[in-house]
């Protein structure tokens, strides 16, 4: 029988949320460099924010975020969605034990579709797990402008065992 959590039914403990935020925003140095911040952390969906960092724009762009930054942000958010889903799957464990389950998480495949230029001062990133298997998770992500306009989409697979 699958241990997939029911969509939206899981409330995480404050200890789990603060621990996962610390891992994602502080201990993963690349996320810190990008300036990724978690806004919403649920078992079925995660939402983050990315502020324009002009040193990441590049010389030729006019306040346009580079595609590599977009794909890295989407990949990170897909991984965070996997972490949340894994955390929800193992609610029978204490929060600290669940936070140690993410050591083997890694991207297997990532596809990004760039729909519009990412011009602006802040962006919202959303991710959800479509399927959490025993070894592989499939995710879907979105990258939106400050006005809510969809700028990029992504799909990814992650090793979770």
From TrEMBL:
NCBIfam families with a match to the protein in the record: PRK11688.1, unchar_dom_1
What Enzyme Commission number does this protein have? 3.1.2.20
Enzyme type, top EC level: hydrolase
Q: Which InterPro entries match?
A: HotDog_dom_sf, PAAI_dom, Thioestr_dom
Q: Which reaction does it catalyse?
A: a fatty acyl-CoA + H2O = a fatty acid + CoA + H(+); a medium-chain fatty acyl-CoA + H2O = a medium-chain fatty acid + CoA + H(+); a long-chain fatty acyl-CoA + H2O = a long-chain fatty acid + CoA + H(+)
Keyword Phosphoprotein (UniProt): no
Family in the record:
Belongs to the YigI thioesterase family.
Under the heading Pfam families, the entry gives: 4HBT
What name has this protein been given in UniProt? Answer: Medium/long-chain acyl-CoA thioesterase YigI
Q: Which residues form the Thioesterase domain?
A: 63-149
